[in-house]
Amino acid sequence: MTTDTLSAVRTPANDNQRTASALRFITCGSVDDGKSTLIGRLLVDSKSVLQDQLAGVQRSGETDLALLTDGLSAEREQGITIDVAYRYFATETRKFIIGDAPGHEQYTRNMVTAASSADAAVVLVDATKLDWQNPQLALLPQTRRHSLLAHLLRVHSLVFAINKLDAVADPALAFANIRNALATFAQAAGITVAATIPVSALKGWNVVISHPDWAGYQGPSLLELLEKLPTTPADAGQPLAFSVQWVEKFSASADTHQGRRIFWGRVGTGDVAVGTAVQILPSGQRATVAQVLDHVRQPVARGAGQSAGIVLDREVDVSRGDWIIAAPAPAVTHAADDDFDTPSERPAWPATREITATIAWMDNEPLLPGRVYWALHGRRWIKAKVRKVLNRLDINSLERQAAEQLEPNAIGRVEISLQEAIPAAAFVRSRELGSLILVDTASNSTAAAVLVE
């Protein structure tokens, strides 16, 4: 991944800009749909690029906007996007973090990585690649695949941007037919679409500045829409789940009235405050939160999505990868219940070794049941085995088909057995607890994104 970033032109920040939450969004879709050019246009027309940077992306005397994000030498030589390139810019009302995801099918894993932390996805559709005169036109496979993946990964807002309409004979007809095809696909897939906008990334129409009446569209420009999109809501209102990322030791302290270690990480669900009763997984030990610290070690309460340091009221064996979760609650019992069969407590997040999940297979080799992989859940590494492939999703018909294996870039449902029990929850309930990745034990390459059902 490239590490160079664009220097934004600093403007006086007003109160709205200082307090508005930054929007993380990605551009995705099929190859050569104009994703990198669109981001370049956003940066240039929002005046977030310096003159010397523009001078460095000239080709034959003209500015090649795609080069503003294609930073790898292989990307510039081949004219394609390979890895996700992140860029940052701000308007008077909001800050943005953009991820330029590659369109090639073989780099789908990079798109999944970018979408997993995005608040919005802008799916570009190249009008010149479609039979735009046909009201029953077929969409490109990558358009469908990236839209489905963004939906499965709980990307909060999805925007379709129909690009290159300036290159067709009848932009209004093309926009109407492609928009209807996208709406039909989205409805069948259960995808909620925030907006469908006609754009010309090359000319800048409807990207930053609106181009009224073009292609029969009267709505806001893409940037105006992005300024109003919400960020992904945190998984609040649920029991605490906190994955330990780092353990800070200060055991030399003579103060033993509480634990002498700080457990740093990010609150996945719920909130944590002094006095919260917790349980450690996988050990099952229990304790009470004695302190909650922010990044400058000041006492504070923390909620879902925020980083924190937790100090417990006593010394408990906790390591990187362990979970600090809400302590079990008393089980609801009835007079007719058999005391021998009724548990006395109800776990906040039950641990399990068997899960059924939707999986996006990204390895170059097909997924075959029975093979062992490393699985990463939160910060914990465990061994995992895919016991059975239940079915695969046909991205064209959206039907579930019987399958015994999954080919590269396929989406399907599987049954997975884990070496240890983990507090897994449905992904629709918790992004943190409901997601895993599978890693090949030999090559250490990411093999799959797993979303617990």
Structural class: alpha+beta
Shape: globular
Rounded to the nearest angstrom, the distance between the terminal CA atoms is 31 Å
Which strand-content bin applies to the residues?
25-35%
Mean pLDDT: 86
Radius of gyration of CA atoms, rounded to a whole number: 24 Å
Strand order of the largest sheet: 4-5-1-6-7-8
Helix content: 10-25%
Q: Helical segment tally?
A: 8
What's the count of strands?
25
The largest sheet, given as strand count, sense and whether it forms a barrel, is: 6 strands, mixed
Low-confidence stretches: 1-19, 72-82
Describe this structure in words.
Helices cover 16% and strands 32% of the residues. The protein is α+β, with helices and mostly antiparallel strands and 453 residues long. Strands 4-5-1-6-7-8 form a six-stranded mixed sheet, with helices on both faces. A six-stranded antiparallel β-barrel has the order 9-10-15-13-12-16. It is globular, with a radius of gyration of 24 Å. It starts with 14 loop residues before the first helix and ends with a strand.
